[in-house]
């Protein structure tokens, strides 16, 4: 992966080397240090902005190279928009946009975080800016050995100094956000890896590395799962030469004596999905290396919670399988008995993720008696038809949990949209031969998939399902993500925990 910039926080001062980023409002209005810089440059910064018809619009830019009267190499004027209306998510997006503009230009960049009206920019905003710059600098290029000039990824500055009024508090705030950023980047790494490198066993090994942060990690083999009756999950992987795994990650951050129920997160981890006997079309099948993005998010989330020492007891469980068409693979028409003892008629072997989740959901309820369960899965193409690539689908049996997830999504920019659950849809997965079938047909595909999962949720257990097929991979690039894999869900769920379940 491309080298990420090192972030540091200092008191504002006029730098002598490298690049200086000056934030400006309408009419190239600078803050105190920006004005001092402009004065030292004989007013050339303001004149350059006026000549470029700079209006101060957010993420608009003016470049001045080798500015007169200054010893720095370059001044970048960055539009701030209305600073009074900027959310932390927008500060983060601005950081990503600035980092992209700085690519391949210098070893050192200093960003003057200040408002043109002289009001102090809070430490959380400065930290969010730095976090956005780091996320935006991520590139997955580890397998590129030779590059032309056209495909060489642009490298961010090796060091970015955030010059802010309260560097100590900004650094403290950034330490928390940085842990979450690292979790997001871990999720991106996992999703971007090719399936020949990241099989079930290798994925489990990567999850076990969380032990270094104090996470208790247990890996169940196929024999372990067979003893527990997890036949739905095992049926998905039986056509692969690579054995399936279940990984249980526990972070006990609430402290000894806590009697609170743990919060539980479940992820679908299909490391590659051919569709099985119901094989997918060849076009685009290479993207199915990302069908484990839900599991990647859970691993990234557990990293974030442990790294920032979240005061919560959290459990992350991922079912890792490979769906391949082999002589031993399950067939359309097969009937399997899940861990819950409910039977499932397999209509389409490409509707496999719900079989994996069915057993994992049963397992976590039996083992952990959760405060709530949130599962994440790249479950259906139907959710992309409904919502495109900008929102994940949210299905829930609990209004409070759904509202909290929606609010966390708005705060982080990882947005979710609630979809319906209803008996009318549930009837579509009734089977003539078993308790249910694994697909309800062409219509309302994401809803019937969620209805399937709900059949494995015990009465009284708060549950939410996030269908992230449109947001976790090949989603539109943003200021904070230039990667095929987005790491969607880590920041969303960390915010959910931080706002409502710690302490």
From TrEMBL:
Gene Ontology CC, one term: cytoplasm
EC number: 3.4.11.1, 3.4.11.10
Domain Cytosol aminopeptidase span(s) in chain numbering: 348-355
Transmembrane feature ranges: none
Entry's cofactor comment: Binds 2 manganese ions per subunit.
Keyword Cytoplasm attributed: yes
Gene Ontology terms describing biological process: proteolysis
Keyword flag Glycoprotein: no
Subcellular location: Cytoplasm
Catalysis: reaction(s): Release of an N-terminal amino acid, Xaa-|-Yaa-, in which Xaa is preferably Leu, but may be other amino acids including Pro although not Arg or Lys, and Yaa may be Pro. Amino acid amides and methyl esters are also readily hydrolyzed, but rates on arylamides are exceedingly low; Release of an N-terminal amino acid, preferentially leucine, but not glutamic or aspartic acids
PANTHER family: CYTOSOL AMINOPEPTIDASE (PTHR11963:SF23), LEUCINE AMINOPEPTIDASE-RELATED (PTHR11963)
Described function: Presumably involved in the processing and regular turnover of intracellular proteins. Catalyzes the removal of unsubstituted N-terminal amino acids from various peptides.
Name the UniProt record assigns to this protein: Probable cytosol aminopeptidase
Organism the protein comes from: Tepidamorphus gemmatus
Gene expressing this chain: pepA
């Amino acid at each position: 992966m491309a080298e990420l910039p090192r972030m540091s926080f200092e008191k504002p001062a006029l730098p002598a080397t490298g690049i200086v980023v000056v934030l400006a409002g309408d009419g190239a209005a600078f803050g105190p240090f920006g004005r001092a810089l402009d004065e030292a440059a004989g007013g050339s910064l303001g004149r350059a902005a006026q000549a470029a018809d700079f209006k101060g619009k957010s993420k608009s830019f003016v470049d001045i190279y080798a500015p007169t009267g200054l010893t720095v190499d370059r001044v970048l004027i960055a539009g701030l928009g209305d600073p009074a209306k900027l959310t932390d998510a927008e500060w983060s997006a601005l950081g990503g946009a600035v980092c992209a503009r700085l690519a391949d230009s210098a070893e050192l960049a200093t960003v003057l975080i200040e408002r043109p009206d002289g009001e102090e920019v809070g430490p959380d905003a400065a930290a969010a800016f730095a976090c956005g710059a780091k996320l935006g600098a991520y590139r997955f290029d580890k397998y590129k050995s030779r590059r032309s000039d056209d495909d060489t990824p642009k490298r961010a500055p090796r060091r970015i100094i955030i010059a802010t009024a309260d560097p100590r508090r900004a650094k403290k705030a950034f330490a928390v956000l940085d842990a979450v950023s690292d979790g997001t980047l871990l999720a991106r790494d996992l999703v971007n890896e090719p399936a020949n490198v990241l099989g079930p066993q290798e994925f489990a090994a990567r999850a076990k590395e969380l032990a270094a942060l104090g996470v208790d990690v247990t890996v169940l083999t196929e024999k372990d799962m067979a003893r527990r009756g997890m036949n739905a999950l095992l049926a998905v992987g039986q056509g692969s030469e690579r054995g399936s795994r279940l990984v249980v990650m526990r972070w006990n951050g609430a402290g000894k004596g806590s009697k609170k129920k743990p919060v539980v997160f479940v992820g679908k981890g299909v490391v590659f999905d051919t569709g099985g006997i119901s094989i997918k079309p060849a076009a685009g099948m290479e993207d199915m290396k990302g069908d484990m993005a839900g599991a990647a998010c859970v691993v990234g989330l557990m990293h974030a919670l442990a790294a920032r020492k979240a005061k919560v007891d959290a459990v992350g469980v991922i079912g890792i399988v490979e769906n391949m068409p082999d002589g031993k693979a399950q067939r359309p028409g097969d009937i399997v008995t899940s861990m819950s003892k409910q039977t499932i008629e397999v209509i389409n072997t490409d509707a496999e993720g719900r079989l994996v989740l069915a057993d994992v959901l049963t397992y976590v309820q039996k083992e952990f008696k959760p405060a709530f369960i949130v599962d994440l899965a790249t479950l259906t193409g139907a959710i992309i038809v409904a919502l495109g690539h900008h929102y994940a689908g949210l299905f829930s049996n609990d209004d409070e949990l759904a509202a909290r997830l929606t609010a966390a999504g708005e705060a982080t920019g990882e947005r979710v949209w609630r979809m319906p659950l209803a008996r009318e849809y549930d009837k579509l997965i009734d089977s003539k031969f078993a308790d249910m079938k694994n697909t309800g047909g062409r219509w309302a595909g994401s809803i019937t998939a969620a209805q399937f999962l709900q059949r494995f949720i015990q009465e009284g257990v708060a549950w939410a399902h996030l269908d992230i097929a449109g947001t976790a991979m090949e989603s539109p690039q943003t200021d904070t993500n230039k990667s095929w894999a987005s790491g969607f869900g880590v920041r969303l769920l960390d915010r959910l925990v931080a706002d409502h379940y710690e302490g």
